[in-house]
Fold these 2 entries.
Entry 1:
Amino acid sequence: MTRDGRTAYSLREIAGRFGGEIAGDPEIQVQGVATLESATPDRIAFLANARYLPQLKTTRAGAVIVGEPARNSTRLPRIVCPNPYAYFARVSVLFHPAPPLRPGAHASAVIDGSAVVPEDVEIGPGVAVGRDVRIGAGCIIGAGCSLGDGVAIGSGSRLHANVTIYRDCLIGERAILHSGVVIGSDGFGIAMEEGRWLKVPQIGRVVIGNDVEIGANTTVDRGALDDTVIEDGVKLDNLIQVAHNVHIGAHTAIAACVGIAGSSRIGRYCRIGGASGISGHLTIADRVEISAFTLITKSIDRAGTYTGAYPFEPHAAWRRNAAQLRHLAELAQRVRRLEKRRKPPKRSKP
Amino acid sequence: MTRDGRTAYSLREIAGRFGGEIAGDPEIQVQGVATLESATPDRIAFLANARYLPQLKTTRAGAVIVGEPARNSTRLPRIVCPNPYAYFARVSVLFHPAPPLRPGAHASAVIDGSAVVPEDVEIGPGVAVGRDVRIGAGCIIGAGCSLGDGVAIGSGSRLHANVTIYRDCLIGERAILHSGVVIGSDGFGIAMEEGRWLKVPQIGRVVIGNDVEIGANTTVDRGALDDTVIEDGVKLDNLIQVAHNVHIGAHTAIAACVGIAGSSRIGRYCRIGGASGISGHLTIADRVEISAFTLITKSIDRAGTYTGAYPFEPHAAWRRNAAQLRHLAELAQRVRRLEKRRKPPKRSKP
Amino acid sequence: MTRDGRTAYSLREIAGRFGGEIAGDPEIQVQGVATLESATPDRIAFLANARYLPQLKTTRAGAVIVGEPARNSTRLPRIVCPNPYAYFARVSVLFHPAPPLRPGAHASAVIDGSAVVPEDVEIGPGVAVGRDVRIGAGCIIGAGCSLGDGVAIGSGSRLHANVTIYRDCLIGERAILHSGVVIGSDGFGIAMEEGRWLKVPQIGRVVIGNDVEIGANTTVDRGALDDTVIEDGVKLDNLIQVAHNVHIGAHTAIAACVGIAGSSRIGRYCRIGGASGISGHLTIADRVEISAFTLITKSIDRAGTYTGAYPFEPHAAWRRNAAQLRHLAELAQRVRRLEKRRKPPKRSKP
């Protein structure tokens, strides 16, 4: 059920809220969202990727959200809009609002007396809140979370169960931190001295802006001296490593399993593909896209897409080709030698 | 000590339970399992990999489990069987049964009154169980686990400490979920609109079949609209990312550090090597093997082994060869030009 | 404030503790450490990497720690020493000692009566301590940690919040385990039998030496039969996977996102770059360095640096070159054919 207690909306009502142009019957009612493939007649589906155009022909959906190019690809009642995926996101929120919070701290939560926790905050079982923690209005702190001394969390944020935030780290407003996230663990700072590693104290913080979402089991290390910084609107997927003193520019989105080494600075509106890596002490410009499985080893000063994944093959073919990789410099040398050979005696043109 | 209170079994007794043919003294008693390398005379070891054949000559084990090809490679009392590793697994379970559960919920566990928890379930300290959760008979839920509203877990399952399951996700029977596992976190669904990312509600679930084991700190995201599905008998190692709407076929085994992007469909009986990746929206056939460190970027419709790792070298050699990679298309072009040069004037054969 | 209650030290006092040679005013007082870039005049900064030499000219620091080569690169009061980074680490510890522990177990911790917990140990809220656990003097166990039956932790160790240690694992002295670390989860041992995977019981332990630090969300699996071993002084970054029966030699440092497959043996003083991988059953010699994003597929018996990352390029260039990779063996063949062509008739030298 939606937030206002309704279970169905007509296309006319939806377009009234979110804009777009209706084609077909505006009075058709839908009760939820679905994919083209699995929609039933009481659902509204969407087409955001031409890959799924064939499904538009066969869907059982009662209505669809499409872009201008697909306006005439269906006879279903439809909303035509410039950005069907974003439009769909808004309609989906209409039908699936975040569950209401249940204000108050569970009796088993351990909250230091010095912590500032507004009444409308929900704190789950077994949560540990340290000294001088400040939690903003309307936050939900899931079961088993641990907030170290001096942590501050902006209003409207949600920490799912079992998130850990080390002391003095700052989280902005409307953050979503998924389970297993660790914010503010020590950066990997070690100095070799006489055959032993000395630990370098990590005394910076993690400072996270507003509207940041961080996926399950992602780790963000605190700065060594200065802070690790994640700007507004950054979206991090699961199992990402953000090392000490990294700086991620606003609205950059990073897919799962990425590792970003220490002190690298990533621009705004970048998109970083899954399982890629960024070496330390680099600067990546705004609007850079990095493909999956790519290691960036030098700074990038121009927007664009950068790639470095090895193309896969059936194993036997890979084996033949990869074996030659070890001789590639030599092969190039041999080609140079061939080129240097005197050209064969000229003959008259045929 | 074994489940039936015994501390030793003879080869005759073991073969009576699990089959196989005894060669040598069937009355020899063993008190446990061990590797060939570290076995003492009261242990039974096994040979499942020809790599360890030399150790068969030197082992101090009292008895061994071998396949037909190694039947005569030792004079030790032995059990000869078609699948020594599986046989060994069964013998190891005989000596090391799962520890008995201690029925009942710890006083510090927080269990919603609407949850269904049979009496023979063990629930550890600090566990949080949400509304309408259903836990099957004989489950063990380790300390600090969090089960969201509406979660269901099949009978005989074991959640180690600090597992998180988001609301409405379904886990089958005899599941083993290791510590730090997160099931049902939001998929990475974001839509760009006017310079900001909109969150796309993730309203699907995670649905996991029977006999699934999931390794430590692995994450499985809930579906965006439809469900993320893991079929029966799937085995996932540690630190794996399974994105929204992925479908993993029955009995597929995936090694650690793998990332599977959204909506990809992996067949049955696949084996996926460590730190490999599968791009989104792909279909992988049954019985495909993917080598470690390989990124799969296209659907695979035939069983077989596929590989795409860069072969490592001493750094200086790598540097020389990798530098040429950036000129490979040009090199191929130059070779084409060389081939097009008129052949030198024919001479009579020597 | 420092451990002895002081807020400032002169260079003379610092050099009195840690050695080094003072150049410039030895009475200058500093109140903390900082980077060259962000230091204020009450701070001491350091230069450990020639990359930051330009910042030495512009820093506002009151004093600096430099190596011999940079002795005359600044007129600031300075300490000249052989290893500025290690020296800085010591000075940083002087100003930022570990926070004092608060002895005693929180009322919400659940500690089995058979556990040995000295009085000076700090145990946080919601910790679960199993049977026969032994915790050494001066340990801090953070909120939500779970220590399985039979676990032993050496004196002076620190477990941050939400660490899980499975039963019977041994942790040495002065360990630092960051949040989300899982020690002793089952190794990935499965045997295929008649279309189903049998679980192979994992009955080894994890045995960790002294002075080991393990980063957030890193997982270390218990041995299948023998133990998984991490020797003294090993430093592991975040999100690393250490599989069953791996052996990591003393003082080896491993960067984030690395995966080490089963039974591999890594030498002492190795340095392993981020997101690299080591296949199973290999032996890596002492003092081997492995570059980031490199998969090691064969044993390495000599110290040195080994690399295997694909060099990244702008996407269009990568596409052209990577396409040729699939034809590399054929290209080499074509070059061989070109070389075999009879050489053109010799001419007199020009």
Note: Chain A touches chain B through 75 residues (CB under 8 Å).
Entry 2:
Amino acid sequence: MSYAAFKSEVAKVNDILCAVNLLTWDSRVMMPPGGVDARGKQIATLIGLARDIATGDGLQRAIEEARAELSGVAPGDIRLLAVEQAADAIGTLSRIPASLVGAAAELKTVSQAAWSKARAANDFAAFAPMLERTMDMQREIASAIGYDDHPYDALVATYEPGMTWNRLRGLYGELREALLPLLAEVKEANVRAEILDRAYPVDRQRAFSSLISSRFGYDFNRGRLDDTVHPFEISFTRSDVRITGRFRETWLPGGLFAVWHEAGHGMYEQGIPEEFSRSVFATDFVNLYAVGGASFGTHESQSRLWENRIGRSRRFWELNFADLRKTFPDQLSDVSAEDFWRAVNAARPGFIRVEADELTYDFHIMLRSEIEAGLMTGEIRVADLPSIWRERIKVYLGLDVPSDTLGVLQDVHWSAGMVGSFPTYTIGNIMSSQFFAAARKETAVELGLEAGDYLPLKTWLNDNVHQFGRSKSPSQLLMDATGSDLSTAAYIADLAHKVEELTE
Amino acid sequence: MSYAAFKSEVAKVNDILCAVNLLTWDSRVMMPPGGVDARGKQIATLIGLARDIATGDGLQRAIEEARAELSGVAPGDIRLLAVEQAADAIGTLSRIPASLVGAAAELKTVSQAAWSKARAANDFAAFAPMLERTMDMQREIASAIGYDDHPYDALVATYEPGMTWNRLRGLYGELREALLPLLAEVKEANVRAEILDRAYPVDRQRAFSSLISSRFGYDFNRGRLDDTVHPFEISFTRSDVRITGRFRETWLPGGLFAVWHEAGHGMYEQGIPEEFSRSVFATDFVNLYAVGGASFGTHESQSRLWENRIGRSRRFWELNFADLRKTFPDQLSDVSAEDFWRAVNAARPGFIRVEADELTYDFHIMLRSEIEAGLMTGEIRVADLPSIWRERIKVYLGLDVPSDTLGVLQDVHWSAGMVGSFPTYTIGNIMSSQFFAAARKETAVELGLEAGDYLPLKTWLNDNVHQFGRSKSPSQLLMDATGSDLSTAAYIADLAHKVEELTE
Ligand SMILES: [Zn+2]
Ligand SMILES: [Zn+2]
């Protein structure tokens, strides 16, 4: 009965965290303005309960008894894996003292408010003291978790198990070397950018992006699409996986690609097997978050794959532009599939990460990662961030940052105490190309893409990525699915091929 | 620190129960079809956690220490009241063994499925075994809770503290005696019923019912209105109180009055004082339900007051019919305010409780209460229900029940293990008239109603009902607000006056 006890405690934690996900979704999609304060307390209470159970004696005892019960089974047994994976993650969670967790949560509230004001006023100095305290606390958390080589490793690994700053630096170096020349080349590409900011009624944008999401394989019977300020995906087990979008009448790609991005995340969660529901393999014990994806980077690989590898491909628009034109006959009467594809691939260095194109996006991530790593060792000081930011953006993208609002103050992450999550965006980009290349080795996938039938690709992802939930590490998942660990080659090849097509 | 510990444990329970309310709301309003199974488990886990905390040693110790800490304070101190009220409710909750709670929850699932099938097939015999088991279990629960006089008392009191079958019988007798002659009289009233089932576009019904809800005083900044199959109200503290409606194009009053009914419930919850948020006075520990209203009957008094005492009054339509006609100019071009008011007050005995008018509604409740009381003592047997039902409906409403689907199988309550809640509908009707009569003694209220300004009435309800949350018993609340305990006089007077107006 001890493995059963273990399973049932884990299921409880997962249920609580799914409820937290719903409280979060609702607060961003449905909640009336008055509800904010009470909602914050409700979420804090549930997270606290989840933590209490996860780090409590009951689960610890169940883990030990399950180990004893399973002492005779074969080493690869999934139950053993479940127990050891939970023990490991709970170990990390337990090493962060409750007092530190509480202090971080309190600081987050005031720090986010300070950041919001500072950004509006373009006043970094007003935010700096909060940011210093946040970074001190993150350093404390890194020490509490522990690391071999670099304090940043401890934090990065909470989002991307197994990743280190040393490996990231290697990957970033390869990307810089390959992307800088591509970026120089693509500037000459011929683009009618103005076709994207005509007036596209929002309800028809929503309809078209839903139609394509269904074509990709997102299941609306186990999901729904709503409007929010910042698009996101969230799940309450595989059977209820919701996505949101944001549509602006005069910026067509904003709405479309965000929905396909979130649908990519959503298909991952919808593809978690039923038997993993409420299990360790659908629970992130370190971040106390109900999720079926193996890591933040792996998750991002799925969203980027559908958004960029498919949604921004030439073949996709050759096949689907006719439907878009049917949706917007007046707006697109003078536009060809080729024009449209070129326009949604326009590359131009800019200040804002979330508006960056494929060729410049990763530079924004490198910059942030380097700053985070430097802050964690103390080699970089908070006070110097504006100048360091300016310096590096100039080197990477050749731009002069006119204000901190367009620079170091643009992202919410640091004010929220998130250090170590930025690299997962680039990791996701890299992985997306690796998975995509491996999938295309199957004839059915390739023929499907050629014909506009996305089911073979989705099925390949189901079979090689989704179905394993969190039961494989990101590295193992990549190795098994693609034959190699994280490697920039496929991603660089995809971007080089894109530039080649664009400059034809 | 012990009263503080008590408060914080209670707040935790309230937070969990608010999360349960959101899980419930979402499952009825937003959840995609796939989500059902997982949602049921999430709700069960959270209710289990709330029960564990409520009946756990930690809260018990905090209660005892709080008693010690408060031993010197004045007897009426609100903190003492909070502690003793919690202790009392938790006492009731603790007397129901966890095994019985679990068995009841399991039975509910299969019983509801059986009821649903039996109703569709008009096959009471197929449902009877489940109903027998449900009633056995309710008898067990009644014994576990304990009672002085009648087993039904134990169950009724979980919904309406202090109420007994003996008192109910007295009230029912008074109502029967007064209403039967009124019902005979009103049949002669002159009504153009067909004006209500013209084609009324649903979006305009929603807009008009929202407009009037706002006029009544329901605050949409702390609430929202959505569509569901069965309208309801639910709250996540006073700052987020949601209502739902159901609109059918060819049945105008269905949508309007349901929304005003739910808005009445909603205003009660929005009127709970901020300092009661997350406290004993906003938590039903017996039913493990986050709610600020004093009892089910008290809650129903607020919904019925706005729905019937206001929404079905002649003066209301004299004042507001012009806006309705502006909303539906074509449909209502040949209809007067008087026609409309008469139509929405048409009284006619029918088989279905939820479609019953004001004059016949309580007979449906009496019938159910008598059956429930008889089942609890064993004087009535499940097998005899169809015939007993037929017999009593004939006596009360003069109708011959053509099928059990229109008779004993019509309500979901018994299959869900709810025994003792039906009386609260009639208690609510009675109370609504008592509160209304007391409020109208204030000149400002009366002048407001005359002028279509509902703020004075709402303010009176805020001051005399809502602001006390669950800190007064229903009886105390009535005594303080109206000068008398539960009494049928005002309700009978309201109905008699309505009949008089209708037969003018
Ligand atoms: Zn993403
Ligand atoms: Zn009601």
Note: The two ends of chain A are 66 Å apart (CA to CA).
